[in-house]
Amino acid sequence: MLDTPKANRLHIAIFGRRNAGKSSLINALTGQDAALVSPMPGTTTDPVFKAMELLPIGPVVFIDTAGIDDQGELGELRVERTLRVMDRTDLALLVVSPPAGDLSMEREWLEGLKGRGIPVVGVCNKVDVGGMDLGGLEGELGIRFVPVSARTGEGIEFLKEAIQEAVPEGWERDTIVGDLLSPGQVVLLVAPQDIQAPKGRLILPQVQVMRDLLDHRCVGVMATAGELGVSLEFFRRGGGYPDLVITDSQVFHIVKEKLPPEVPLTSFSILMARYKGDLKTLVDGARAVMSLKDGDRVLIAEACTHHPLKGDIGREKLPQVIREMSGAELGFDVVAGNDFPRELRGYSLVVHCGGCMLNRKHMMSRIMRARSHGVPMTNYGVLLALRSGILDRAVGMLLPSG
Ligand SMILES: Nc1nc2c(ncn2[C@@H]2O[C@H](COP(=O)(O)OP(=O)(O)O)[C@@H](O)[C@H]2O)c(=O)[nH]1
Ligand code: SF4
Ligand SMILES: [Mg+2]
């Protein structure tokens, strides 16, 4: 992801007066100490663009608008600079910290941002020192403010959730696997031996992966598990192995047996979990199943409303799997469609469906809500990968180790 070109990163501009805590906030959000010491008086006060990873949202560029609140003879220059920043902003944070005092500058920024249709997340910083009337602030400026402390980290997960919810449509991760490959690399896709429904077609993840490979000028070769030997023989004649193998989870074990451990191997469902959500959160969530205790409640969430079928995965199969894996007596709630609860804190785990009908933004909002409530979250595919013992290998090349 570090290779994401700057232009493809979400640009988050941070507006706030000097000392509101803009630089500290960048550090708190990214967990890095990379932000910028306040500029010395007299040096340039041009906005600083910093490409960073905002986990788990993804690659972003923070625009630190240091010095943009300068008054006086710099007035005209300030307006000019502000406009230049706003032209490049996808999402804005408006930071206020005590004592709030006169809010004319904040109002001016807010008007400019709203006029451009840029979503704004209000941040009330330095809650550790107190002295801020949050309701009054929200009333004055007409937007919601998330109370945080960049110093102690309080509220930072809630702020990430608010940022994720404000991310404009269209800012979805737009690659499934192509970002891991270079043009010209060859990928072997493996389907189960007896390809099931739908007749005469491939299923959506297979089609999407193939399209993504082509978009990234990679070569996709596809076979069923039955023809795996022949396919690998084909590669061997060329002197090697595929650069990556992506298999259906059902035949993961067969594929794994035939591939040397150094050949990268993953599954369609793991790639889709990464594409739709945050793979690390989902993998950690799956592992949290092992620490469930008697009496814990688990939320199972499906994005579609359909009649529960007998043996339905969400209502019967999955609770059984989770009971077996954890060895605990658990309570289950199942929700479907838009009924994903606002409050998740009563749960010890959330298991979501693959979310093929949700866009990434929607799925990420749900993941961020679970994170800010401190509740582990996983999905069916990742959980089943853990149970069948394929998770470690399947996520090996997709997650930084550790
Ligand atoms: N108590 C407290 N101090 C903070 C907090 N955030 C920033 N500060 C302090 O406020 C001052 C200005 O912070 P800085 O990030 O440089 O503000 P900027 O000018 O908006 O970039 C520094 O002394 C920070 O240590 C916070 O959450 N709580
Ligand atoms: S996995 Fe897809 S089809 Fe199934 S409930 Fe979730 S969104 Fe709907
Ligand atoms: Mg600063």
TrEMBL record:
InterPro entries: FeFe-hyd_GTPase_HydF, GTP-bd, HydF_dimer, HydF_tetramer, P-loop_NTPase, Small_GTP-bd. One of its GO terms (cellular component) is cytoplasm. It holds the Pfam family MMR_HSR1. Residues 176-277 form the Hydrogen maturase F dimerization domain. It comes from the Bacteria. One of its GO terms (biological process) is tRNA methylation. Residues 281-395 form the Hydrogen maturase F tetramerization domain. GO terms for molecular function: GTP binding. Residues 11-126 form the G domain. This is Hydrogenase maturation GTPase HydF. It comes from Thermanaerovibrio velox DSM 12556. The lineage of its organism: Bacteria, Thermotogati, Synergistota, Synergistia, Synergistales.
